[in-house]
Amino acid sequence: MKKILLSWSGGKDSAWALYRLRQAGEFEVGGLLTTVNERFRRVAIHGFREELLDRQAEKAGLPLWKVDLPFPCSNEQYEARMAVVCERAVKEGFAGVAFGDLFLEEIRAYRVARLAGTGLEPLFPVWGTPTDRLAEEMMAAGLRARLTCIDPKKIPAELAGREWDRALLQELPEGVDPCGENGEFHTFCWAGPMFAGEIRMEAGERVERDGFIYAELVERN
């Protein structure tokens, strides 16, 4: 069975990609590949603390491959650091990298182009499922997540920190993707069939940074 890395944002889509990969049984997921803001020790874009990322890896039973990114980070810096990771993965016997992308063709094309010639195959285990159906599939299976980062130009700021559930989907403005694939929101997955148990946490204060609203997530004992 080929060993692969899974690009891990900590959100619902990458979590669901892990579940689907394990269910399919074609590949062995050997690690979670995550970019971390090296200054603030938070997961890039999604904005939650590194400690919560560590807890996700524990619950998934997988090692973390953390890629520290400078702040601010240029595209050239990002690509240079990811190239180092790709070299390491090939040396350690990995055959591919899986991504939780849903339908954005330009993102998929970028990933395919960056992996070309590395010896790593790009995989997209959740690609192409209509997102309304995908959201229902995730929720029915017990996946639980909270909104950690939202774009207030697309959805109301007060939704930051809210549980991603059927009630929230009913409140989203018309045209907003139920999975937030157009950048409307990002999430932190805290429970689901890909984890051995729940990560007990709650939403704290909201802060605005660089035009986005972030909800602090605090782990509970």
Structural overview:
There is one protein chain. The protein has helices at 12-24, 50-60, 75-91, 105-115, 131-140, 166-171, and strands spanning 2-7, 27-37, 42-43, 64-69, 96-98, 121-123, 144-150, 185-191, 201-209, 212-219. The strands form two sheets. Strands 1, 2, 3, 4, 5 and 6 form a six-stranded mixed β-sheet that branches. The chain has two domains: 2-123, 3-Layer(aba) Sandwich (Rossmann fold), CATH 3.40.50.620; 131-219, no CATH class. 35% of the residues are buried. It is 31% helix and 28% strand. The protein has 221 residues and is an alpha/beta fold.
Question: What structural class do the secondary elements suggest?
Answer: alpha/beta
Counting structural domains, the number is 2
The CATH H-level homologous superfamily of the largest domain: HUPs
CATH level-1 class of the largest domain? Alpha Beta
**Mean pLDDT value:** 97
Which value, in Å, is the CA radius of gyration? Answer: 17 Å
Shape descriptor reads globular
**What would you say the CATH architecture of the largest domain is?**
3-Layer(aba) Sandwich
> SSE order, as H and E?
EHEEHEHEHEHEHEEE
Q: Write down the CATH topology of the largest domain.
A: Rossmann fold
Measured distance between first and last alpha carbons: 38 Å
State the total count of DSSP E strands: 10
The helicity comes to: 25-40%
The number of helical runs is 6
- Regions with little confidence, pLDDT below 50 for 5+ residues: none
The proportion of residues in beta strands is 25-35%
